[in-house]
């Protein structure tokens, strides 16, 4: 009797445990089903919003292994497979979901400048179109929308001769004008505006490095795969970095001038100046990119050496806010002692586009420039 009761109790306990296990299992399965439905709905909603564009999945190292998905169209239509760089297409626009931002590099054929906006998964759509071959359609004086990729560059004080490092933002200059078409198909572009930041050149070192540093700064406005050269406005054949300055050793009435390689100055800047004057109605005046009604001094790549019976000075050249060419000494001798000085000015670089660059849109006017990135 007691044994039968015990067995019955054991069976009841096993039944209760089994029932609880099944309830737990059903609860887990139900939760998983709900999560699956929500995930499926979100996935459907995203692709419905993107009109079921093809999607390329990948990993982006900058996101610490966060997911990125790319949707795309080709000339407004859904493509069968993601295009390759050899197909002659260019990206016209990139849009991303949930506040994320990015841009497309036609030269690298990849998404760049990605800001996930805190999202673990980033969804972007790229609009590809047939590229317009620039060197077949562009004219001298046409406007080009081009944005350098570098956002900040720091110039070492040892190069400028000043007391501290200085910073520029190359990516702020985004409107350029064609000043020359070369035989190899490359195009020389001059920035329509000057940099908002000014650069200082100080003392003897600033004079000696003046031309070289301006070209170094101009290089920061280049972008791999889009440009193949650059220079500061006015550079031609000047000595970029002077190794020494020739000592003053002229008698009172003797006309003397150190050689250019020893700091004697130059007039090689005139070639670029003529190119600019031809497309700007003989005007050299230029305006701040952030204050487009404010004209500013900007440097041209040229040194000037001046002297008289008692003193001499080593000058750097620049275009004034009124549009004239002037110079100011940064190092000299006043007849009694050597004098240090400085000059500040903005930048107006020239970049050279590669010969096979294609535009995604535009007609070359200031209101509708050729768009290349």
Short account of what is shown:
22% of the residues lie in helices and 33% in strands. By secondary structure, the protein is of the alpha+beta class. A hairpin with a 5-residue loop joins strand 12 and strand 13 (187-191).
What layout of secondary structure does this protein have?
Blueprint (H helix, E strand, L loop, with lengths): L1 H48 L5 E6 L5 E9 L2 E2 L10 E8 L4 E5 L4 E6 L5 E10 L1 E2 H4 L5 E3 L7 E3 L1 H4 L5 E3 L6 E7 L5 E5 L7 E4 H17 L7 E6 L37 H10 L18 E10 L4 E8 L5 E9 L4 E3 L1 E4 L3 E5 L4 E2 L10 E2 L2
Parallel strand pairs: 2-7, 9-23
Antiparallel strand pairs: 1-2, 2-3, 4-7, 5-6, 8-22, 9-12, 10-11, 12-13, 13-21, 14-20, 15-21, 16-17, 17-18, 18-19
Give a written overview of the molecule.
There is one protein chain. The chain is an alpha+beta fold and 373 residues long. The protein has helices at residues 2-49, 134-137, 157-160, 203-219, 270-279; strands at 55-60, 66-74, 77-78, 89-96, 101-105, 110-115, 121-130, 132-133, 143-145, 153-155, 166-168, 175-181, 187-191, 199-202, 227-232, 298-307, 312-319, 325-333, 338-340, 342-345, 349-353, 358-359, 370-371. The strands form seven sheets. It has a six-stranded mixed beta sheet with strand order 15-21-13-12-9-23. Strands 1, 2, 3, 4 and 7 form a five-stranded mixed beta sheet that branches. Strand 17 (312-319) and strand 18 (325-333) form a beta hairpin. It is elongated and about 80 Å long. It starts with a helix and ends with a strand. Mean pLDDT is 84; it is low at 1-6 and 35-65.
């Amino acid at each position: 009797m007691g044994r039968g009761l015990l067995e019955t109790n054991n069976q009841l306990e096993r039944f209760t445990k089994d029932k609880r296990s099944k309830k737990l299992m059903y609860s887990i399965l139900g939760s998983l089903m709900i999560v699956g439905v929500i995930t499926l709905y979100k996935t459907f909603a995203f692709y419905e919003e993107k009109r079921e564009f093809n999607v390329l999945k990948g990993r982006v190292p900058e996101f610490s292994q966060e997911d990125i998905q790319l949707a795309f169209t080709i000339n407004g239509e859904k493509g069968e497979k993601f295009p390759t760089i050899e197909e002659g297409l260019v990206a016209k626009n990139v849009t991303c979901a949930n506040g994320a931002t990015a841009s497309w590099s036609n030269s690298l054929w990849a998404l760049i400048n990605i800001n996930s906006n805190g999202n673990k998964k980033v969804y972007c759509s790229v609009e590809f179109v047939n590229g317009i071959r620039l060197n077949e359609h562009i004219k001298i004086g046409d406007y080009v929308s081009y944005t350098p990729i570098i956002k900040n560059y720091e110039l070492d004080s040892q190069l400028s001769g000043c007391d501290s490092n200085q910073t520029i933002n190359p990516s702020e200059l985004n409107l350029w004008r064609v000043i020359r078409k070369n035989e190899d198909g490359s195009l020389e572009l001059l920035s329509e505006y000057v940099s908002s930041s000014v650069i200082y050149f100080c003392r003897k070192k600033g004079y000696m490095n003046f031309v070289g540093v301006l070209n170094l700064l101009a290089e920061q406005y280049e972008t791999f795969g889009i440009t193949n050269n650059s220079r500061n406005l006015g550079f031609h054949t000047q000595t970029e970095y002077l190794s020494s300055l020739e000592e003053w050793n002229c008698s009172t009435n003797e006309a003397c001038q150190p050689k250019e390689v020893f700091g004697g100055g130059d007039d090689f800047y005139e070639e670029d100046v003529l190119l600019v004057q031809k497309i700007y109605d003989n005007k050299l005046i230029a305006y701040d990119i952030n204050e487009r009604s404010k004209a500013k001094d900007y440097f041209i790549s040229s040194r000037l050496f001046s002297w008289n019976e008692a003193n001499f000075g080593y000058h750097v050249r620049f275009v004034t806010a009124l549009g004239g060419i002037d110079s100011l000494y940064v190092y000299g001798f006043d007849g009694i002692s050597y004098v240090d000085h400085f000059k500040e000015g903005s930048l107006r670089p020239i970049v050279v586009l590669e010969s096979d660059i294609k535009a995604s849109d535009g007609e070359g006017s200031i209101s509708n420039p050729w768009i290349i990135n």
